[in-house]
Amino acid sequence: MAGSKENGNADVPPSPAFAQTSAFAPALRPDHSTLDLSSTTPKLSPPPTPADGEVPQFSDKYGGYGSQAYGGVQGGAEGDQLLGTGAAAGGASRYRKPGRTSPFQTLLRLLAAMCAVLGLLALLARLSFIPAAPRAKVAHHLSPYMPTTVVAFLRPASGPSAPHPIIPLLVSANDEWSKKLTSQSTTYDRATKTYKAKYGMAPPPGFDKWFAFATQGRNHSLVDEYDQLMEDLRPYRSLSPQELRRRTAELAQVPGISIVSIRNGVAQVHSKSVKWAPALAFQQMLGAFVRDLPDMDIAVNEKPEGRVLPRKQKKVYVSDYGLDGTEELAVNMSDPMLSPSLKGFIPEWKRDGSVWEAYRRSCPAESAARRLVESIRSAETNGALQVQGRSSSKPESPQTRRKQATQAWPATREMAFSHDLDASFDVCDYPSLHTLHSAFYSDQRNIEHLYPVFSPSKPSGYADILIPSHHYWSPSSEFTYEWEMQRGRTKTPTDLEWQIKKPTAYWRGKVTRGADTPPGHGASFQKQRLVKMANQASTESKRVLVSFDKETAGLSSIAAPVAVVNKATSDIAMACDPSLGECSYLRSLGYRVEPPAPLSDAWKHKFVLDIDEIGFSPRFLALMESKSAVVKSSIQREFWRGWIQPWKHFIPLSSSYSELHNIQTFFSGFPPSLSGTRGNRTVASTTLTRPHPIPELPLNADGSAFDNDKALRDIAEAGREWKTQHLRKADMECYVYRLMVEWANLVTVYDDEPEEVAA
Question: Between the CA atoms of 576, 578, 580 and 585, what dihedral angle is there, to the nearest 10 degrees?
Fold first, then answer.
């Protein structure tokens, strides 16, 4: 490299670009002006110059420049005129044939034209004048023939794209549901292998009869999807059959618990109250197979909410007493956790505790629920933890920031969409959820030991064993789809066709009862918050709505007063019977109150909301059977949890409801009253993003190109199909039969097991 520098031309000026981008100083270059170039450069004689007008002679058989066709002064003059050089250009130019080009020149011109066209296409593509899909196909076909750089430039731009967050949720939901359906066992041998692979043990006795009943007798398709059932039974596997039977017998003395006893293939109900409807429905579910079950007792919860919250035992180590070592101390055999008793159990809280206090005691010692509130908030803020139900910042802050804003930018939580219900969250890790739900303020006292209670629903952390609710098995009129037609009161369906439904969200519900411990928290419960949010009358604070363009996959937004948005997007109110005398009181608290309405009123709307009661929502299956799309918010787990696919069969909604309006605008666009011109003021939208590349949008259920409204209709139709094919009475029977087979295995003492002697 040094030699090449020395032989360089000294007259070449220093490179400005090089001088600006490095520390190299041009003035420090060696001076070559004194170098004698004659000693290093050979001297060559210049070539002879032909005389003016002299025609070169060639031996080319085609004549070359010496051909008569190329000679003459006229040709030279024409060449001089074309080149603009005159005589100074030399005589050779006079002998070029005018009007002709060589094949090589033609090829170069064709290539240049092609490059120009491709460049224009690529430029138009980059400016989004050409959709991504067609230009991707063109790039694919040209890739074998064009340079890589040209093809790469023509292809859609790589790099981060920004599709609407709902798009990947729809895609993954369809894929996961398809895989779940196609992976189910179709033979007993395969079902046995799947059971062993999933749970690490052999199926219990009676599994073969259950499989035959489910597949041949009831056409049950989801035979491998019983993870929720197995998770419910997991803590009880640590107890002996004798202890399980003893604890069940104790539950018979607890108010709010019914006993279903099976003796010699016959099931009977025993209850000390008149609220035995849950136990009666469970007895009916057993009817088709009870003769195949051994003798046992089942404790059925008469309440809709969970009951069992076993305390977590703190492990004690020798180091806790100042001794060396890390061994865990043996548990004292007199510990009441090993042999608990419900003697003197008080069924309700008498101002001596609450559900949340009991729940916290059931959480691990290192969980967020066991820490101080200040520490929890700090962890949520510093760790960027997005609690589904509640933000760490003040709820008014996004609206305050938008009040004077000229562009509409959504808050993070308004565009954060849940992949599943909040029931999937562990409240021990997300303690902020408890302030938003009446279940944690129930007046019903919890059982704080591991007792086998069979319940219709429970939040995470509860140890109840889930069973189908009696509201699902034999629903009343208010929880039955098309009840009027089923009872012969009308021959015309009350449900409307999709095109007639309004693109708005609908909900009616009564005030939750039995949740006032401790008192004074009703305003933060799930129903009250929904009604307040959907009926805010503020015209100062803004709400940002984001719309998705199916043609460009771009996002745009508008900001409008909260009151205007609510009126345009929802019909949500408390249902109140005037005869009860509390309607005026609810209105004084700021709630919108309407008279009770039949369930069929919901069918006028494309979006129907489903919100928890103090336990689960008993109207869920009726809503799913309708032709409307269900938007569900819940912290309650139910037996069907592993049988359904969010974003395929229903739309999950977080406990904060903050994303509700943007769920609506994704599928239905901006309401007409909020777009275009309102009065003398034009509402302009803000372009948030135009993603590159445009994502591969999912196809609609019929294979057509993606359409927002059609995608919502697909969810409604898939939910209806799910209810009629996967949550029939026959499917509930299959679930209960499988549960009884598993439970019988836990409470049966086999011949090779020693009998325990009572202490």
Answer: 70
What phi, psi does 216 have (nearest 5°)?
-90, -35
CB 748 within 8 A of CB 241: yes
| 532, amino acid identity | K
Contact 49, 88 (CB under 8 A): no
* Per-residue pLDDT tens digits for 713-735: 999 999 999 999 999 999 999 99
Question: pLDDT, tens digit, for every residue of 618-656?
Answer: 999 999 999 999 999 999 999 999 999 999 999 999 999
* Interacting residues of 338 by C-beta distance below 8 A, sequence separation 6+: 331
CA–CA separation, 438 vs 613, rounded Å?
Answer: 8
Give the angle 542-545-548 at the CA atoms, nearest 5°: 165
From residue 484, alpha-carbon distances to 479, 494, 626, 675 in Å are: 12, 8, 14, 39
Among 57-71, 305-319, 398-412, 556-570, the least confident range: 57-71
Cβ atoms 135, 154 nearer than 8 A: yes
Which is nearest to 694 in space by CA: 566, 558, 550, 579? Answer: 550
Amino acid occupying residue 632: K
Q: With 0-12 CB in 10 A as exposed, 13-18 as middle and 19+ as buried, what is 59?
A: exposed
The string of pLDDT tens digits covering residues 234-269 is: 999 999 999 999 999 999 999 999 999 999 999 999
Q: Give per-residue pLDDT as tens, 1-43.
A: 444 444 444 444 444 433 444 443 444 444 544 545 444 444 5
CA gap 371, 389 in Å, rounded: 19
Gap between the Cα atoms of 181 and 49, Å rounded = 89
Q: How far apart are CA 77 and CA 85, in angstroms?
A: 10
Instruction: Give whole-number Cα distances, 616 to 625, 630, 678, in Å.
Output: 17, 15, 42
d(CA 192, CA 194): 5
Burial (CB < 10 A; 0-12, 13-18, 19+), residue 149, is exposed
Cβ atoms 556, 659 nearer than 8 A: no
